[in-house]
């Protein structure tokens, strides 16, 4: 496999070239906007700024992919999205569930295994966004976990995660509909996936940075 191979994966792209997907390319600015907002809101805290850096990397990789339309850029796009998801699973476990960092990191391989299992189960159905179903389920799972937690401070965030899950569900539907609407809507719907995902990533990032502080664990977990 040649990593420089041309990839024509979206309705908007009709031919090779840097400006083959103008809306898909420009709409990535939404990720940059989210990254800048999270960076500024994090102040001088280096921990929360990790999320801003990852949002910036998603912006760069996705922009490269839709501008260059090559395999390596597509791989980078997928990789940085996955990294954000796994890092956020760790951050959520620490910030909202109060698990110490040493144990919270176990959330990353656990969520990766969950993602692989969900993708493998759904892939035979021919659903193009199978790998994104795990994050969708994860958002609603996070909302459910916060809704039943005894920590009143964390519990107040469950509507945000439920909202993020709802927005991501719409976003994923638009991503899946991209090729099916080409005849009626030549630019496709993938650019809407970018815009809505930027909203989702900002919602969860902003929620985390508001609560990112050392948390005391119950004595039983010490």
From TrEMBL:
Keyword Transmembrane tagged: yes
Keywords assigned by UniProt, alphabetized: Membrane, Transmembrane, Transmembrane helix
Transmembrane region(s): 51-73, 79-97, 104-123, 129-149
The protein's name: Ceramidase
Lineage summary: Bacteria, Bacillati, Actinomycetota, Actinomycetes, Pseudonocardiales
């Amino acid at each position: 496999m040649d990593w420089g191979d041309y990839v024509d994966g979206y309705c908007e792209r009709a031919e090779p070239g840097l400006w083959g997907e103008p809306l898909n390319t420009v709409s990535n600015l939404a990720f940059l906007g989210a990254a800048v907002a999270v960076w500024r809101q994090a102040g001088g805290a280096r921990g929360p700024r990790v999320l801003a850096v990852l949002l910036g990397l998603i912006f760069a990789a996705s922009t490269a992919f839709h501008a260059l339309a090559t395999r390596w850029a597509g791989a980078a796009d997928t990789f940085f999205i996955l990294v954000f998801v796994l890092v956020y699973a760790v951050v959520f476990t620490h910030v909202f569930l109060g698990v110490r960092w040493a144990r919270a990191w176990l959330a990353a391989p656990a969520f990766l295994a969950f993602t692989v299992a969900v993708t493998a189960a759904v892939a035979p159905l021919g659903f193009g966004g199978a790998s994104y179903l795990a994050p969708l389920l994860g958002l609603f799972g996070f909302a459910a976990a916060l809704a039943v937690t005894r920590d009143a401070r964390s519990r107040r965030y469950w509507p945000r995660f439920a909202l993020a899950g709802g927005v991501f569900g719409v976003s994923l539907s638009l991503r899946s509909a991209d090729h099916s609407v080409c005849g009626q809507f030549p630019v496709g719907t993938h650019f809407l996936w970018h815009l809505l995902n930027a909203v989702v990533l900002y919602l969860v990032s902003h929620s985390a940075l508001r609560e990112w502080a050392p948390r005391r664990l119950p004595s039983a977990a010490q």
